[in-house]
C-alpha cells in the first residue's frame, strides 16, 4: 500500500517561501506515475499546483507557475514543493498525491493522498 | 482552463435513498488517446480526498459498488444507490485530460 506523508513548516511569513516535502513509502517514486501537489484553502475547494515525474519532468498550473518549483529526490523516495513570494491567499492545506499514469491501476486518477499539512501565511 | 461545474452544490439525502451529482465540463474531456480522464473524489470531514471513480465509470480498489459513474463528452454523473452514514462529505469531479488539472466546486452530501 502506497503511503504519502507531507512535512514542513506550518507558518510562513508573507513574501517568504513555502517549502514542503512529501515522503513516499510502500512504493517507488520511480514507478510509472506522476506525483502531484494539490492545495485547499480553509473551507474551500481543491486547486492543482503541479506535478513531477521521476525523470524530473514537471507540469505546473499556469496560475502559479512563476512562483512554483517542484523537485524530486529519488535517493530519498520523496518530492518537494517550493512556493515563493507567498501571501495570505496561499494559506491552505497542502496535499501531495500520486497521479495514476497510463500503466497505473487508475489512469488519470489521484489514487493515493497524504493526510495534508496546513500552512498559514502570517507575520 | 477547463471549467468543471457541479450541481447541486448541496444534497440532503435520507439514509438508504439514492443520490446523484452532476458534473459538466466546459470542453470535451475526450483525450487524443481516446480515453476520458474524468474522475470523482470523496472528502469526508477532516480527511484528505479519496479516489472513488476514474475514467468516468471505473471504481477504484475498495470502493463499494453502491457508487457508480457514467457519462461522456462533457456531461458526467456520480450516483450513490443507497446513501449510508459514512457517505457524508464533499464530492469533487476532476479532469486530467488537459493541463492544468481542474476540479469542480464540490457537492456536499449530508443526511436529512
Q: What this model shows, in words?
A:
The complex is a heterodimer of chains A (123) and B (112). By secondary structure, chain A is an all-beta fold. Chain A has strands at residues 3-7, 11-12, 18-25, 34-40, 47-52, 58-60, 68-73, 78-83, 92-99, 110-113, 117-121. The radius of gyration of chain A is 14 Å and the shape is globular. Chain A starts with a strand and ends with a strand. In chain B, the strands form two sheets. In chain B, strands 2, 4, 5, 6, 9, 10 and 11 form a seven-stranded mixed sheet that branches. A four-stranded antiparallel sheet of chain B has the order 1-3-8-7, with no helix packed on it. Chain B is built from no helices and eleven strands. Helices cover 0% and strands 48% of the residues of chain B. In chain B, strand 9 (89-95) and strand 10 (102-103) form a beta hairpin. With 112 residues, chain B is mostly beta strands. At the A-B interface, strand 9 and strand 10 of A face strand 4, strand 5 and strand 10 of B.
List keywords for this structure.
heterodimer, A: 123 residues, mainly beta, 7-stranded mixed beta sheet, B: 112 residues, globular
